[in-house]
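Take a look at the protein record below and flag anything odd:
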Amino acid sequence: MRISIFIISLFISVAGFCQQENDTIKRKESYGIRIGADISKPIISFLDSDKKGFELTGDVRFLRNYYAAVELGFEDVISTEDYMKFTTKGSFIKVGVNYNAYQNWKGMTNEIYFGGRYGFSFFNQTLNSYTPNIKGTYFEAILLEPNTEFKDLSAHWLEFVVGMKVETFKNLYLGTQISIKKIINTKEPTNFKNLYIPGFNRVFLNDMGIGFNYSISYLIPIVKKNK
């Protein structure tokens, strides 16, 4: 589903570029605050009742090709692994910088960018149920439901991001972003690993992770400068 969303965004982006050719060449470049939201999370929440969450995004252009960026949100996710089912609930925030590598025509403010993020999350984990791994014995596995909650957990990580933003209408942008993540520090409960972290998503081997968002945002112009 996420791949489909990404492909759709590329078609929309191409349409946005074509529109810009005729009506933005003589405009000045806008510097301001851009505020938006990840619209893929509400879609996923609607399609999958085990995944609820939202994410707000924002950035500020402080140099011609540099943007200070922030992303924050909340997640409530039920995950099912081979022998366990658990709930993760908590908030996150990510801050960093994007560099726009796309050479715009005069007046355009589209982006094809890469950048970095520092992420932090604080959350709770609840072990809803688990089945002891007793394969190879004569005993039948019994589903246990302890509903044990682990509170005050946290995680810190770094991200490398690649994405694009296209102005489809005046000051209104559609964007996509892919991120590769690496945990640098995490607080875990005894005998239970943090397999899912809000803002980080699923934790893979070597504490690595990947992420994706599809955003819509609006630029609030503050100043306009000639290119």
About this structure: The beta strands are 29-38, 51-63, 66-80, 84-100, 111-130, 148-169, 172-187, 196-197, 201-202, 208-225.
